[in-house]
């Protein structure tokens, strides 16, 4: 690559406006959490609760993908594969061995870490575009494998996965708590030493390498962290629906998560959370536009990259003034 | 056995045609054009529309008519590719690679679901169907139409190779692949050459789309997704950016799939193909004929 291509940053250096100051405020996160906690008091029909729970799980997915794409600048087009790995691991273990779902969580973490290493280790040494398309292939491999194997129930999937709680309201609150912790964890990771290394790799991999950052290890760490986040979101998903099938883990899902991250603003936690909520709730409000929805999403992706590459709610760098 | 080889070569020639466009674009501007598979789909639908406009024809005229339609479709799909480059890729030529990849994903989405909105979600049945008589050669059953399609694919590929190695235009392309800014100092209109590269690559994808439509008989708006992935795999196997390597990779992937299907069963075909991709990237990321390139800073 030539030097000019590295000049543009993913974040923005413009002075913060009033709106973005509000978003950066530490109370913004607490306000968002309060909003999520109070929502069932406004509308607690089973339908509304399931929509909100799905939105919360989607936020967790977006937070996980944000580690890979937003912090580290690695394009993962098969992120839903880790979601599937998590959901299927906990689903298979809990139905075959009659385990409670909570007990499967350590296994899920181990399996997703292994999956992350298997796919990340060979490709992270190469140019980042290879990673994009290999992850796309990996997403297909996982979906087709789940579709073909007997242990995963074939095309009809697994059903009868035990719920975490019987009440949908309590499950919603549980999800919100887990997701908040996951989002907070991702944000803390982003501010850590490792997070700074990730952003350095994103901005200029060669310079990072020259400054002594072990870029390969750092990239693999981002990839594994993203995999674990996705896998845990998969456990929540399995617990919510109690039935999973390969149809839930298509490329479309991966693309939607990516869209949430890109629209919200890569690397910006508040942006990504808002992006995920918007992307997951929008279809509920735009039922009439169902046919054009994905077309609009595609055009929007291009438009955002051309006009506002930092996303709608961009990250503000605290390191550069 | 020979049947497996023939099936593999037949499917492989489709892969090679689509992979060539991928490989050319990647070779010149280092962009993975995710929307390339969707240009194949657009080609199939353009061919469908053109055939529909021509109306019914007798079976004896099907093949010559198809060749004319093929040419028309190639031109139209090529123009679609040029438009795509102009709108979605050119403004970002100096942007970080991540932005470019994301635009390409967006373009792929917009093309797929734009076509769905325009033509409907149900598969369309191609008005001209190439079935027909089969002949036995060395124990393999192959039809005349298959032979013609492979012949067309081979002619297109050789034409492309001649264009790139023997003409001024091809020399300009190779120069830009080496160093775009120096090429422009040497009087090469870089943007124009990149446009023409997109035209050629998209035209080949469009040709493959029409051929697939006429052979398999059914087209739908998602048909480009899988073949885009397969074409990339083929390009990686042969060495992305290398034209003869890409052709070889396409044929090889077709053969591998054909034998893989025989051993493992059809439901594992795609898993097998992508497994090969990951294996190749681990063991020999530059592909069979690719050169080792060092990253310039």
Quick structural overview:
Chain A has helices at about 20-25, 25-40, 45-70, 80-95, 105-125, 130-150, 170-190, 195-205, 205-210, 215-240, 250-265, 270-285, 290-305; strands spanning about 160, 245. With about 325 residues, chain A is mainly alpha-helical.
Explain this structure.
The complex is a heterodimer of chains A (321) and B (297). Helices cover 70% and strands 1% of the residues of chain A. Chain A is an all-alpha fold and 321 residues long. A two-stranded antiparallel ribbon of chain A has the order 1-2. Chain B has 297 residues and is mostly helical. In chain B, β2 (134-137) and β3 (140-143) form a beta hairpin. At the A-B interface, α5, α6, α11 and α13 of A face α4, α9 and α11 of B.
Number of strands of chain B: 4
CA gyration radius of chain B, whole angstroms: 19 Å
User: How many helical elements of chain A?
Assistant: 13
Query: What is the 3D form of chain B?
Result: globular
What is the CA-based Rg of chain A, rounded?
Answer: 19 Å
- Main sheet strand line-up of chain B: 1-4
Q: Which runs of chain B of at least 5 residues are low in confidence (pLDDT < 50)?
A: none
Number of strands of chain A: 2
Largest sheet of chain A: 2 strands, antiparallel
Q: SSE string of chain A, helix = H, strand = E?
A: HHHHHHEHHHHEHHH
Helix content of chain A: 55-70%
Oligomeric composition of the shown chains = heterodimer
User: What count of helical segments of chain B does DSSP give?
Assistant: 11
């Amino acid at each position: 690559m030539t030097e000019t291509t590295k000049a543009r940053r993913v974040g923005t250096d413009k002075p913060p406006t009033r709106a973005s100051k509000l978003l950066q405020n530490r109370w913004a996160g607490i306000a968002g959490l309060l909003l999520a906690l109070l929502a069932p008091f406004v509308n607690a029909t089973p339908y509304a609760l399931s929509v909100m729970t799905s939105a919360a799980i989607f936020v967790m997915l977006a937070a996980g993908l944000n580690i890979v794409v937003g912090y580290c600048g690695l394009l993962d087009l098969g992120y839903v594969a880790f979601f599937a790995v998590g959901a299927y691991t906990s689903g298979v273990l809990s139905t075959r061995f009659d385990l409670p779902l909570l007990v499967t969580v350590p296994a899920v973490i181990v399996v997703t870490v292994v999956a992350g290493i298997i796919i990340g280790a060979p490709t992270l040494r190469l140019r980042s575009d290879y990673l994009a398309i290999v992850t796309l292939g990996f997403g297909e491999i996982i979906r087709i494998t789940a579709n073909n194997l007997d242990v995963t129930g074939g095309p009809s999937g697994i059903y009868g996965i035990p719920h975490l709680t019987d009440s949908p309201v309590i499950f919603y609150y549980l999800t919100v708590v887990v997701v908040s912790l996951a989002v907070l964890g991702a944000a803390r990771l982003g501010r850590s030493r490792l997070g700074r290394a990730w952003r350095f790799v994103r901005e200029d991999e060669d310079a990072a390498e020259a400054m002594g950052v072990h870029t390969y290890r750092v990239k693999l760490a981002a990839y594994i962290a993203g995999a674990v986040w996705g896998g845990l979101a998969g456990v929540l998903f399995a617990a919510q629906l109690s039935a999973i099938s390969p149809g839930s883990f298509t490329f479309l899902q991966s693309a939607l998560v990516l869209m949430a991250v890109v629209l919200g603003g890569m690397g910006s936690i508040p942006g990504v959370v808002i992006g995920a909520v918007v992307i997951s709730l929008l279809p509920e409000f735009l039922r009439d536009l169902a046919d054009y929805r994905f077309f609009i999403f595609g055009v929007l992706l291009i438009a955002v990259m051309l006009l506002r590459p930092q996303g709608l709610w961009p990250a503000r760098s605290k390191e550069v003034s | 056995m020979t049947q497996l080889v023939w099936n593999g070569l037949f499917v492989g020639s489709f892969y090679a045609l689509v992979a060539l466009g991928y490989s050319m674009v990647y070779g010149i501007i280092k962009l993975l054009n995710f929307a390339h598979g969707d240009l194949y789909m657009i080609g199939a639908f353009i061919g469908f529309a053109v055939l529909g406009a021509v109306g019914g024809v007798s079976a004896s005229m099907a093949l010559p008519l198809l060749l004319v339609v093929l040419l028309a479709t190639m031109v139209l799909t090529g123009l679609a590719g040029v438009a795509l480059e102009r709108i979605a890729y050119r403004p970002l030529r100096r942007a970080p690679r991540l932005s470019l990849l994301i635009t390409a994903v967006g373009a792929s989405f917009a093309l797929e679901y734009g076509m769905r909105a325009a033509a409907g979600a149900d598969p369309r049945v191609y008005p001209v169907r190439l079935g027909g008589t089969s002949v036995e050669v060395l124990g393999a059953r192959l039809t005349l139409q298959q032979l013609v399609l492979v012949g067309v694919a081979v002619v297109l590929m050789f034409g492309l190779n001649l264009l790139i190695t023997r003409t001024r235009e091809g020399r300009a392309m190779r120069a830009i692949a080496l160093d775009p800014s120096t090429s422009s100092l040497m009087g090469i209109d870089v943007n124009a050459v990149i446009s023409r590269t997109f035209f050629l690559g998209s035209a080949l994808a469009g040709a493959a789309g029409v051929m697939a439509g006429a052979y398999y008989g059914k087209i739908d708006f998602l048909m480009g997704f899988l073949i885009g992935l397969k074409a990339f795999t083929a390009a990686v196997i042969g060495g992305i950016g290398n034209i003869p390597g890409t052709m070889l990779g396409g044929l090889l992937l077709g053969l591998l799939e054909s034998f893989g299907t025989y051993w493992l069963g059809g439901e594992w075909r795609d898993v097998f193909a992508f497994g090969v991709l990951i294996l190749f990237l681990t063991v020999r990321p530059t592909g069979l004929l690719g050169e080792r390139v060092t990253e310039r800073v």
